[in-house]
Amino acid sequence: MPKRTDLRSVLIVGSGPIRIGQACEFDYAGAQACRVLQREGFRVVLVNSNPATIMTDPEWADATYLEPLDAETVAEVIERERPDALLPTLGGQTALNVAVELGDAGVLDRFGVELIGADVDAIRRAEDRLAFRAALGSAGVPVPESRVVSSVDELEGLHAPAVVRPAFTLGGTGGGLARDRAELEALVRRGLDASPIRQVLVERSLEGWEEHELEVMTDAAGNCVVVCSIENLDPMGVHTGDSWTVAPQQTLPDAEYQRLREAAFACSRAVGVATGGANVQFAYEPETRELLAIEMNPRVSRSSALASKATGFPIAKLAALLAVGYTLDELPNDITGKTTAAFEPALDYVAVKAPRFDFAKFGVSEARLGTEMRAVGESLGLGRTFAEAFLKALQGREQVPRELDLSRRGEPVPERWDVLLEAARRGLDLPGVHPYFADELRAIAEAEAVLAASGDVQAAKRFGLPDETIASVLGVGEHEVRRRRGLPGRLAVDSCAAEFEAKTPYFYLSYEDGDPVPRSSRPSIVILGAGPNRIGQGIEFDYCCSRASVAFRRLGYKSVLVNSNPETVSTDYDTSDRLYLEPLTLERVLDVCELEQPAGVVVQLGGQTPLSLALGLVAGAAARRSAGCDRACRGPRPLRRAARHVGGSHARLGNGGQRRRGARGRGAGRLSGARPPTSCARRSRHVRCPRPRGAPARRARARGRIPARRARARRRRPLRWRVGMGLRHPRARRACRRPLWRLGLRDAGALRDAGARGRDWRAGFRDRVWAGRARAAQSPACALRRRPLCPRGQSARLAHRPVRVQGDQAAAGRPRLPIASRRRPRRARSPG
Questions:
Q1: Quick one: average pLDDT of 177-194?
Q2: Which of 202, 339, 367, 380 could bond to 566 as cystine, CB 3.0-4.6 Å?
Q3: What are phi and psi of 643, to 5 degrees?
């Protein structure tokens, strides 16, 4: 069915300030929804209180309110804007709670506002533990034995161990695993205080079971698809946000996966999620094949951003379109351009998510993980095998444990998988891990041992070992490893296992034959992101990188973004011209630079992470070239202008140029330096004009930087054509800021008259050009510009020369104008 025509204005409620369990993934979801609803012709009204988000920029919505996210404030916005619908499923738990409060207070009915995506009843059935259990029981989906309590006195007959889950909370806040009676009572008291309706669910402990998640999309016609299946590497008892996860699931047989799929669809329909996305979590016991539904989020969740980046399927965008009336078979798949959203993604690669913890910032001496989320960020690794993706995610955390206690390898500690990998290297047992993942860890340890014995770097790279590990095993430097290995291939995320060609430029690197990518005529700029969120380096740096990407694209560059954080707007496939979801390590960034041959690399917008790579990038570029290069420079004017848009600057890799078709000589095809799409305003030790003329051209031709064929063609061009092109040259355009026809060149008769009076028409042509420049320099508009022709009144670089009076000007008695030029005008030839 087509989109609804009875809706004209949609109110979107954001997620508020960043917190554990509700971070920048909801900024990504809200920004996607705002963009697509505006594109469909709806008036978008946004309410959010977080100034660090992309979505609160004025351009993302027709009306943006930076106000507290409480029912009273949102009611005032509704009264003022009178939207037709409220979309609460993109702002996390905060938006759902506000929507329920507005419904209970009668605000929605009073102003005729419809809840789209999920109504109040569906939200209550998913968040109220008693209603959720009843709804799933009626649908035939089994749930763990449990009891809903509202006071400690109702715990009679319940025994530990048990799991406490408060209602209407975020990230398991207030819950936990109780192992004895005293701990159970304490957790229930804390959960009642955390729950807005003072209700907790005390359920049977399933510690040690496998945990699986399914991201589901439904539409108004009853169609359902599974976007992504996610398997937790850690067993039940650890919050899914704190667990390492892999997509697609690796250990379930197909028959068991189909059971999960059908149970997820039944759960979504029973709760009443009419349109949009939902996240369903299951516990599975492989020996008894027992399957139990644990929890469901009737909204775009924290895992939805992970599933979107792992598959390339834009969950938030499609959820917004489904909420306004579209069905899955009517929406195209942006990745392929040929299929619809009703096709479930199929992956021919593996995605592994690694959480990041910052317990050290709070002085926690002994950190343990449980059912309450503690992770502050996450990184995503994509690879052709589990081992390759696992090692990328391990590097992408940007966090190395100070010490590893191998005796705790079976405990739920933050560094557990580092400990398990080290235990595999030492040949120890790996308790509490599925046999499949234990074998993968042992395979990594075996690959390192084979490398130490054979020294085959290329085989180690095909397996997925990073340069840092290879250098450590072989006892050499990383630059030596780069010298011995080749360049990785660039593989596209296509969501269809290569059945159709990918249309979106979303890539990862692997040592296989890469997908062909057409080379663009525009130079590219590589922007380094901020990596996983952490204390002190959060969403504000993603904001800077996203804005920089937009600014560079407006200036004519191809923006190339490198980041490993799946939660951010910057890792959306349509934020930049090309996206590489890779760890922010020197190895990966240099590989991207080798593939892209950028004009510059921006290192100052992603926080400390890219800044720490700056010197390594310069050293790596110098190692690839025969000549050295500068560490950093201010760069040409377009780059500085883009940097001012986002509050940063850029670093570059050298003085070379973009690889050009047919270019020859030493300057062709190198890791190039910062240069704008057009020529620079002036020469300096940092910037070269791409097309020097005269003696500079001869010197450049002698050095092999200008092909002789192009130089001969330039000499054969008529001088008038060459001068005209020179005026279109940015140097002249910045000098006069006027088009060619306004510089006194409209009157072709003046040129003929100048030649008839015995003067060279070329000299007359140039004199008219210089006179036009002088008029432009003396105009009031030029005086008000930031960069006039003569800064500070009269520039010492421009010499004032005697006035030349040309034919028509002398006859008309026009005032004489001083002529400013860098070079002395050509003398007029004598008659005869």
A1: 85
A2: 380
A3: -65, -35
Instruction: Report residue 236 as tokens.
Output: 């039940």
Helix, strand, coil % in the chain, rounded to nearest 5:
40, 15, 45
Token duo for residue 238: 């650890």
Q: Which of 708, 618, 682, 681 lies closest to 655, judged by CA?
A: 618
Q: What is the rounded distance in angstroms from the CA atom of residue 389 to the CA atom of residue 382?
A: 5
Q: Which residues contact 183 (CB under 8 A, 6 or more apart)?
A: 160
Tell me how far apart the alpha carbons of residues 771 and 756 are, in angstroms, rounded to a whole number: 20
Q: What is the DSSP letter of 597?
A: -
Say if CB 58 and CB 66 are below 8 A apart.
no
The first and second tokens of residue 803, run together, are: 């006035």
CA 141 to CA 193: how far, in whole Å?
Answer: 30
What is the widest separation between alpha-carbon atoms in the chain?
Answer: 121
Tell me the CA distances in angstroms from 821 to 303, 689, 741, 789, 808, one per residue in order: 63, 19, 20, 11, 22
- 308-335 burial, b at 16+ Cβ within 10 Å, e below that, comes to bbbbbbbbbbbbbbbbbbbbbebbebbb
Q: How far apart are CA 234 and CA 663, in angstroms?
A: 54
> Rounded to whole angstroms, how far apart are CA atoms 704 and 648?
35
Radius of gyration of the chain (CA): 32
> Strands across the sheet with 146-149, in order?
146-149, 200-204, 162-166, 176-178
Q: Residue 549 above 70 pLDDT?
A: yes
Strand 350-356 with 377-383, pairing: antiparallel
pLDDT value, residue 803 = 36
Half-sphere exposure of 167 (CA within 13 A, CB side): 22
Tokens found for residue 681: 């305003």
Average pLDDT, integer, range 320-347 = 86
Q: Rounded to whole angstroms, what are the CA distances from 279 to 254, 293, 746?
A: 20, 11, 68
Put residue 641 in one of left, alpha, beta given phi > 0 → left and psi -120 to 50 → alpha: alpha
Q: Is the pLDDT of residue 755 over 50?
A: no
Interatomic CA distance for residues 13 and 64, integer angstroms: 10
Which residue shows structure tokens 């709806």?
42
Q: Which two tokens stand for residue 800?
A: 């004032």
Angle at 500 between CA 495 and CA 505, to 5 degrees: 60
Cβ pair 293, 136 in contact under 8 A: yes
Question: Which amino acid is located at 506 in the chain?
Answer: Y
In this structure, are residues 474 and 321 in contact, taking their beta carbons and an 8 Å threshold? Answer: no
CB atoms inside a 10 Å sphere around CB 274? 19
pLDDT(770) > 70: no
Q: What is the pLDDT of residue 298?
A: 84
Band (pLDDT 50/70/90 cuts) for residue 21 is confident
Separation of alpha carbons 293 and 284, rounded Å: 9
Do residues 541 and 604 make contact, with C-beta atoms less than 8 angstroms apart? no
Across-strand partners of 179?
none
**Partner residues linked to 278 by β-bridges:** 216
The whole-model pTM stands at 0.74
pLDDT at residue 531 tops 70: yes
Q: Residue 268 in contact with residue 278, Cβ under 8 Å?
A: yes
- Cis? peptide before 248, omega within 30° of 0: yes
* Sign (positive or negative) of CA dihedral 263, 264, 269, 272: positive
Place of tokens 């130079």: 523
